[in-house]
Structures
1.
Amino acid sequence: MARHDLTDEEFEGLTPLLPVERPNEPGCPYRSHHQGLTGLFWILGTGAPWRDLPSRYGPWTTGYDRFRRWRQQGLWQQFLDALEAQARRLDRIDFTFGALDGRRVRAHQAAAGAKKKWKAPCSVVKQISSAKPWDTAGAATRPNSMSSVKGRAPRAR
């Protein structure tokens, strides 16, 4: 038995919630819900793509088709609601602990090692933008418009 496989006892608890199996309909033999659910739990537990489903759970297309069909029918929501109601009746839900799965939380780009840009507070930006180069200590006079040509002869027109 693999790590994600349902035991017979666990499956017996889920059996009343599952749709009726169709063993005698024409066509391909219908895969059991036990095998299908165990394959689904393997996919959810490992995070593997459907195509990597081990052959002991049946063809991956069968598992995916059943999962998709049950999702479209709203069976998964009914399934979860019934399990929650059953757990509440048995007082088996602990509301004192909560956890957040970090795989779904987006991190800031700087968390991945991106170059950080320093952003000055507004008061510093106003001081920097209003300051002129000649306002610094040591600047004697304000430069004139010809400062770039000092020491050269003026251009002829």
2.
Amino acid sequence: MKIAHTGLNISEGKVKYDDPIVLALADKFLPKKVTPYYFDFISDNYEAADIIVVARDQILDLLIHDIDKLENRRERISEPDERAILDRILLSMEEETPLCDKTFTDSDREYLQKLSLISIKPTLLIDGDTVDMKEFIPRAMEKADHMFFYTAGKEEVHAWLIHCGDDAKTCAGKIHTDLARGFIKAEIVTVDNMLKCHSMNDAGKRGLSQLVDKDFIIPANTVIDIRFNV
């Protein structure tokens, strides 16, 4: 995930997230390999970002890009209905709030998407210029409607980033395309229950795991094992 930021003391490039769940699973299973998730922080490159994070007192540095684009478009058009939409949106931006946090009609939001405005992307405002990654990353993921699922065992503990609402087959494809292509079932268990067990097999014997089909929506904080045949 690419995170563009303005006005914050964050290192550029890929930054490892010390996910407490990954750490707990690694302590439990002592795997040969631990693969945490690395977020890619980019300064000010809003167009390339999946989410934007801005110090609250510098929000205008972000919004001015959208305001300029909206005002330039308003100057070029004569169609009264479109001008009315632009006037309404520009007026709302005087509140210094990202467009993603505003309530629009479906038609207005569809119109905004076509304009490729920056602050229509998930935008998180931070008080101050210093962030605590353990607190900040979950907030950013929630804002962008993302979450982790996990694979865990003696070979590897791995965090995988997905959209909230993704199904089991989509998760399988994140791990490897062959797992999605030959998907049979997914065995899932909550992280809390997995930490009580010696393995996924042990979780099954204790009745703590569940077999689900490809269209099952995966909850947050889930450990997954994919059954497949290719």
